[in-house]
Amino acid sequence: MQSLRAYLVLFAACAAIAGAQTADTKQRVKAVRELGKLGSESIPKIEPYLTDAAPEVRAEAVRSIVEIGTGRSIDPLINATRDNDPEVQIRATEGLVNFYSPGYVKQGGISGSLKRAGSAIRSKFTDTNDLIIDPWIQVRPEVISALGKLARGGASMDSRATAARALGILRGRAALEDLYSALRTKDDAVLRESLIAIQKIHDESAGPRVIFLIRDLNESVQIPAIETVGVLRTKEAIPDLKDVLTRARSAKVRRSALGAMAMIPDPSCRELYVQYLTDKDEGLRAGAAEGFARLKQTADLPLVNKAFESETKMSPRLSMAFAAVSLGRNDLGEFSPLRYLVNALNSSGYRGVAQPFLTELSRDAGVRRTLYPVLSGATRDEKIYLGQVLARTGDQETVQYLDAMTKDPDTAVAEQGLRSLKALRARL
After folding, report:
1. Contact predicate 159/165, CB 8 Å
2. Which candidate among 48, 170, 217, 310 keeps its CA 20 to 30 Å from the CA of 417?
């Protein structure tokens, strides 16, 4: 009886201590939250909480520093990436991205889904990941170094995947070796985010380091790997891509394989393009057309023209239009391939296809000069998206046309004109 009474007393004491500790933790979280409302001057007062014993307090300290969002936030956030708690690492990582891409955390960050009692963030790693900072933005080397170490060996696979995603958004070329190391994991999210980051960094020397994943058994890894060797124009990957194209049972994988080959100009692939240009699968027809576009053999123009005129599906028809313009048909007649591409910029469903084609085509000065007159009578969407295209591909001659956009009576067009002009001048 006495032992039972002693146990009950001890239990009550432990419960009281735990309750006091919980209450104390909540008070410190509240204190950090209040400090965060005071702006950048409060950062030195928040920093000590980054070493608090309770991870909840450290996470709140990071969240507050992220919300403050000034240049003084960077060093504390870099330090927080070294925390041993995954949530703290993820919040710090996204805070660093948020500094260079304001609004990232609120608009689509991973940390918005974080919950200590069962995280629901895995699905976030399968969403669209096409964000990348503007080329004139310079990221501090210490930021890329910290994120690279996290991608290589964070406290959890989620924090590693988040760091890899951040490196892609921030164009973290200096962390490529860390991303190569991340490719050796077996975690699908880390692999996928690392591959997409390598695509965005766009260092063609990285291509051969990715080839081994072309045959991965998981499509969520295999397809980004195939796309990566295509984007990086990795000629060494062509034999593997051909094999995947002929052996894969998945239509998605076969489309990706042919699409990747189409980005790597190689005459040995031409017979495959001829074969698939009339295939019943519209994705394969599109890939074949893009292959003709980049081979640039003008003798193929009649074949491509015929396919363009007879195609009834919009997606492959856009690819065929791209090929026809690439092979020399760059007039702006009412039913011309180039006009078809420009018109597609008005479609929310297809401008994501048409704009990259126009970007690639307008690297040719002749195509650019054909597009300049379009701007004066274009729709709002055509002006905005052509402005983005010309910012990436224009030369000194382009400046006057983007400068004219900045004076457009439509505010959205004028604002895009300013952004495009700034990007072009930074690139020139």
Report:
1. no
2. 170
